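Batch queue: ligand-bound targets. Current item pairs a single chain with flavin-adenine dinucleotide. No template structures supplied; prediction is de novo from sequence plus SMILES. Inputs echoed for audit trail.
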Amino acid sequence: MNYDFDLFVIGAGSGGVRAARLSAQNGQKVALAEEFRYGGTCVIRGCVPKKLMVYASEFSELFHDANGYGWSIGEYSFSWEKFIVAKDKEINRLENIYSNILTNNNVKHYNSRATLKNYNTVELSTGEVITAKTILIATGGRPFIPNIPGSEYAITSNEIFDLPTKPNNVLIVGGGYIACEFACILNGLGVATTQFYRGDQILRGFDSEVQELVSKEMQNKGINLSLNNDVESISKVADGYIVKDKLNNEIIVDQILYATGRVPNSENIGLEGLDIKTGLKGEIIVDKYSKTNVENIYAIGDVTNRVQLTPVAIVEAVAFVETVYKSNPTMPDHELIATAVFTQPEIGTVGLTEEEALKKCDIEIYSTTFRPMKVILAGRNERMLMKLIVSKESRIILGCHIVGHAAAEMIQLAGVAIKMGATKEDFDKTMAIHPTAAEELVTMNNPTR
Ligand SMILES: Cc1cc2nc3c(=O)[nH]c(=O)nc-3n(C[C@H](O)[C@H](O)[C@H](O)COP(=O)(O)OP(=O)(O)OC[C@H]3O[C@@H](n4cnc5c(N)ncnc54)[C@H](O)[C@@H]3O)c2cc1C
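Prediction returned. Tokens below.
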């Protein structure tokens, strides 16, 4: 049977664009549909604008610290409006790059929503019907707000990037990495920030020493963190929103940002009619090669809810192309993924937490917290954490956790060594670089426990 295209990709995010480009470069005839903006969550309302906001927010502390180093800084202030204009300019530039990647590689792209009609056919919102031999679903995910009285007044990470004015005070609901990052960003920009998390400690799933240190430092920097707490109801008043919490307190804020998880974009794209299997959260169920239960339909990225990170969606796209078009069946490797959280202080982590490792084997812990040189003249008490989790038997480093300035940059490189199977002795043999904070990673001689 003749199809219009070899491959039809739904979604121009991190995964979709990479898969479309590589397939086209391999000689396939490729089409793609995007219902919103090219670049997807990462570029338009995720990693990139968030990191720009992190950079913006860090200046308040830098200005403060400069004084300890002898600088006199005059009057300074932050213009939200000016920042938004600069941020939008950069996002537009990146969006153009993504769309040009498709054009330059002869990927026919439609600015349209696509839904599956049958195993080889998609229908665009324009009514156009297109056939393809293979279909790749890369529709990503979206934020989720629980249904509570007044939840319609809350915003999510989608809206925070485009607020026309800076809020004076904000409530952030959630304890995951996105909630914590925005708490730090807004606090750094001078917004009075309260954060509610319903559990005992933020950053669930991270090593407990990381959780505790970051939680403490965030509070030291001025975030009003309320644990074991949640929103009961929200009501609108003339000068903002009244939030009633589970502890029976009330606060008034300008904005309520919910970062309580994300759900896969798998609804109303035609999966039901085709019996494509989804899981409890709506994630598309795929095998190790990202294939759904239908032979010619694949899914990658956040819509599969495996590991929700941009580089993971990209690696899944590359593996899809290798498998389907290059006769080289390739499983994306989800082991030992180094990740960062751009809180202030920053987190870099790879491998097992102490709690996870303890369940697997006998371990040694090498852990140190210290005041890094950078903060001393600045007169701050911020502490940094370096932690290695080592298998007692094999001596292999099972996990590495860093909290502090440049943790994200450090963990990328520690991740290479750990992915290669480095042992504690390999780290010990590595000459330290002095004076750095990272040298602690190769100079921890005695196990803490
Ligand atoms: C606030 C925030 C911060 C983040 N920070 C980081 C970070 O620091 N590092 C990191 O690695 N990851 C981060 N992420 C996660 C990262 O953005 C995602 O993992 C990544 O974008 C997933 O890529 P994807 O291709 O699966 O989906 P997406 O990038 O979400 O792309 C999916 C695309 O499909 C489109 N679409 C959906 N349905 C249809 C349809 N029916 N028809 C046509 N188009 C459709 C959407 O409009 C979207 O453009 C962050 C996410 C958020 C929300």
